[in-house]
Design goal:
The protein is of the alpha/beta class and 418 residues long. The chain has two domains: 240 residues, Peroxisomal Thiolase, Chain A, domain 1; 156 residues, Peroxisomal Thiolase, Chain A, domain 1, CATH 3.40.47.10. Helix content is 32%, strand content 19%. It has twelve helices and 15 strands. The strands form three sheets. An eleven-stranded mixed sheet has the order 5-4-6-7-1-8-15-14-9-10-12, with helices on both faces. The longest helix has 17 residues. The protein is globular, with a radius of gyration of 20 Å. The two termini are 27 Å apart.
């Protein structure tokens, strides 16, 4: 029987995305309906079937030291900068916290893919002597978590869930477990991914997972849309600073929001295809709601995983319909990947920040490119917006359910409040 978990305060956040170089800019662009997906004009992409992607829209080089620019894969660079943003914002809550009591949990789906591709090309073209001696520490999936701990001087443990597209959300689950078990007093949790390169694009395209609307990049990612044909590969990172409710300083700043509970399950069905009826995905949602001690009537909206693949979106829609029951007809559902593309292991963290901002502002962004909606998607997908929300009848709090699913059948659902 799932037991209720202590609510966890979000005291800082940071994000670097195809829409902006920070969380506030990403939120503003989301509300305005802007797209972060563009055409790739680099020569290395000229012969690829999918020549569009969501690329980080700011130059990050100036924010990194010279050695970090040379010795960190882009995945680690993005994760480090997002974590710095989150840590800086959380500083008013961190007085007296011992570095030995601060943990880092940064998920990724792949890790240093650009390093892997570049050094393999060096090996083939120039021989073993031209392979960078730092290849392994640059490409390992746990590099981002380790680099963040090094940069901020943290000693409470560095962890890396690798759960494909659910990795960033699974980082929140692990962070809550660390806090509830008193293994840490503060956790920096999130995800980072940098897969926009020749190997990343051709790999996903070969399995027919990507949209190939190369002539219309801003229309290519179509979550829940009738004519969706795959997701758009994107890069970025998101990080949240998490602390126990009871550890917040009296009279200090209010937290940005709350992580109430995380639910999880595994499909046990197929390595890339979701269980088609959404049975185990629905179980993860129900698990999260039970642990949060909330019913579906308390929810203000759902933020869907919805990547824009024909099979995946339909499976999630069925899972949501099963979980929400009669509320599936009227509970707003928003799908941010129409603007962001799919950030893989970073998606769960970046999108959680957007969901918390939506709760704080009482505005649910519309699901860009969902119109015309697939008639098989029997959900109240927000197509005109942003949609205004009312506050909770009793406490004034609003609540949201956020989903993240990954290859391998990983299902994570998160209940948030603000």
């Amino acid at each position: 029987m799932a037991r209720a978990t202590e609510r966890i305060a979000v005291t800082g956040w940071g994000a670097i995305t195809p829409l902006a170089g920070d969380a506030d800019g990403t939120w503003t662009a989301t509300l305005e309906g802007r797209s972060g997906i563009t055409a790739l004009h680099q020569p290395w992409a000229s012969d690829l079937p999918a020549r569009i992607a969501g690329c980080v829209s700011v130059d990050i080089a100036g924010e990194l030291e010279s050695l970090q620019r040379r010795r960190l894969d882009r995945c680690s660079q993005l994760g480090l900068l997002a974590a710095r943003q989150a840590w800086s914002q959380a500083r008013p809550h961190l007085a007296g916290v011992e570095p030995a009591r601060v943990a880092v949990v940064i998920g990724t789906g792949i890790g240093g893919l650009a390093t892997l591709e570049r050094q393999h090309c060096n090996l083939l073209e120039a021989g073993p002597n031209r392979v960078n001696p730092l290849t392994v520490p640059m490409l390992i999936p746990n590099a981002a978590a380790g680099q963040i701990a090094i940069d901020l001087g943290l000693h409470g443990g560095a962890h890396t869930p690798v759960s494909a597209c659910a990795s960033g959300a699974e980082a929140l689950l692990l962070a809550q477990m660390l806090l509830n078990d008193d293994r840490a007093d503060v956790v920096i949790a999130g995800g980072s991914e940098a897969p926009v390169n020749r190997l990343g694009l051709v790999g996903f395209a070969a399995m027919r997972a990507l949209s190939c609307r190369n002539q219309h990049p801003d229309q290519a990612s179509r979550p829940y849309g009738r004519d969706r044909d795959g997701f758009v590969l994107s890069e970025g990172a998101g990080a949240l600073v998490l602390q126990r409710h009871g550890d917040l300083k009296a009279g200090g700043p209010r937290p940005l929001g709350w992580l109430l509970a995380c639910g999880s399950s595994s499909d046990g069905h197929h390595i890339v295809a979701p269980e088609p009826e959404g049975l185990r995905a629905s179980a993860a949602m129900a698990d999260a709601l039970r642990r949060a001690d909330l019913g579906v009537d308390a929810l203000s909206f759902v933020q869907a995983h919805a990547t824009g693949t024909p099979v995946g979106d339909l499976a999630e829609a069925r899972a949501l319909a099963r979980t929400l029951g009669s509320r599936a007809r009227d509970l707003p559902v928003t799908a941010p990947k129409g603007q962001l593309g799919h950030l893989l292991g970073a998606a769960g963290a970046v999108e959680t920040i957007l969901a918390l901002q939506a709760l704080r502002q009482g505005l649910v962004p519309r699901s860009v490119n969902a119109d015309p909606l697939d008639p098989a998607i029997e959900l109240a997908v927000v197509q005109d917006g942003p949609l205004s929300l009312a506050g909770g009848a009793d406490s004034g709090e609003r609540y949201a359910l956020k989903n993240a699913f990954g290859f391998g059948g990983h299902n994570i659902s998160v209940v948030l409040a603000a």
